[in-house]
Amino acid sequence: RVYRIPYPGRGTAIVKERFRKAYRQPDLDRKLTSRRVIQEARSLQRCKRAGLDTPTLYLLDVEGAMIYMEDIAGKSVRDTLGFSGDYGSHGVLSEQIGKNIALMHNLDVIHGDLTTSNMMVRSTSNNLVIIDFGLSFVSTLQEDKAVDLYVLERALSSTHPGSEKLVGPRNFVTFGARY
To answer: What is the phi/psi pair of residue 7, to 5°?
Structure first.
């Protein structure tokens, strides 16, 4: 569950809470849930330290399986791109996507759910922010990085018909390959 709360000194924060899975043995569920929460926080911090724009981590409550993080003011890339099929004006955004994914993969962080809903454009700076590292993991395997890109490609083609212009000569894949 994800919700917005008032947060002292920060205005608002996003809280991401992982719920207990009733079908799992309780001790195993606690262990898996705490590992997942810790891995998400580590991935966020690893990317943030390397200069990627990710939500700032405010608090990690492993026992409660909750992450408190920055509430990003902006629009999702999904909403920014829309569904019109006219994507020719989004070259800068396409380059930002490529650069951010390349830097993330150079850190061996695999997002696990790269979609345009898990990327935001900050309203204050127009920077791309990658969010929701809930399925992330660390891997040096090129295959894992390729699957990350494949998930994004499938998300683009299913959510944004006609988005081939984003996958042209200056696309996120070829741009990202330079990093």
So the answer is: -135, 120
Helix (H) or strand (E) holding 155: helix 142-159
Identify the residue with better confidence: 160 or 79: 79
CB 137 within 8 A of CB 110: yes
As given in the structure block, the two tokens for residue 52 are 């990627």
Kindly state the DSSP code that residue 35 receives in the 8-state scheme: H
Global pTM reads 0.86
pLDDT tens digits along 48-85: 999 999 999 999 999 999 999 999 999 999 988 876 55
Task: Give the span between the Cα atoms of 99 and 96, in whole angstroms.
Answer: 5
The catalytic position among 108, 113, 132, 144 is 113
27 is catalytic: no
